[in-house]
Amino acid sequence: MINNLNEISYAIYLPITLFITVWVGKELHKKGRPLMQSAFEKYGFENWVSPINNSLLAGYYLLNIGNLLIFINTWETTESLEEMINAIAQNVGVIITLLGVIHIFNLTVLIIMNFKTNTNNNP
Q1: Measured between alpha carbons, how far is 57 from 53 in angstroms, rounded to an integer?
Q2: Which domain holds residue 34?
Q3: DSSP state of 86
């Protein structure tokens, strides 16, 4: 029997988390654009939507792929199937939680931008 299951864990963990990261990034990039357009048009920066949306996507990928690699380096040795499943589940859960926190932060900024312009335009 294999004494160290870390290599198998990595082979399972990386494709799962890379898929989730890329899929979520593409969806947020595509579906977040209308909210960005709404917020930026009110400030007269409609030409900035695409460059900023693309920059956010690039930063999102760099941040999350960096975190994936950092988490792999912090894994303890897994010596049983149960430890392997727990390590994969815990690390995938951390990445998904991090993605959610980043998304909520970005949405909050855009909502605040929209709210401020709406309150400034109303008498």
Answers
A1: 6
A2: 6-121
A3: H
